[in-house]
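1st attempt posting a full record on here, be nice pls
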Amino acid sequence: MTFAPAGHTIIDAHCHAGKGDGLTGPWDTDAPLGDYLRRATAAGITHSVLFAAFSSDYARANRQVSAIVQRAPGRLWGFCFVNAARDRGRIAAMVREAVEVHGFVGIKVHRHDAPISREICEAARRHALPILYDVTGQVSQVELLATEYPDVPFIIPHLGSFSDDWKAQVALIDMLVRHPNVHTDSAGVRRFDLLLQAVRRAGPAKLLFGSDGPWLHPGLELAKVRALKLDNASERLVLAGNFLRLTAGARRRAGVIRRPRPLRGGLAGMRGAAAAPGR
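the predicted structure (as tokens):
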């Protein structure tokens, strides 16, 4: 059985969760999901996609995220976070565990850890997973990824730059237009006109709604997508359809059915989970 997109379905495709093991800032320390989930529910967001906070051990961090997802299997999905440098040589095994044991439906990579590697791209290809890769404004590599791995979907969050690098975001829009496998999300994009330009030039099939919760308010991030004033069919793509399309194979293999349902034990039971902004 598969989940069919519906008008009321809204998927936040960018949210962190789980404790980090550092003390640099919230992104590698700890942050509760309770407020985020309450805000998301109040905004009408029916599902969220979780990946770990920064960690020196992503195998352990991914298992934490899995435990959180399993507490709300009708509400949450997981992505496997990997470090291209530290996890070198074991990425295939980590991704296989994430898919076959935890039912994860994508891979998360952050250039803050290390630039993405062929090892990661090959694992994504093997399991038909999208890669959400935060390039931290270094968008030129996306050109290589798109052409070397045309069968791997890439989601470049924040329109290429959480730090609001206008040049990087303009450059990424051109790549969205030219490469069928390059997508972006709306998380933390402050230059609204660039987000509007991305949709107008590349089309609504290239944009996913994301909040970068829990530190960015999911309701405010959703209002930004609503302000694009898309037609109903286009808005449904951005809010749910694009994510469901990009993860269709992984969700079928995992046998995951995603219907909105209450969290087990209520939202209060998620207070111990953590997340980070712009990561």
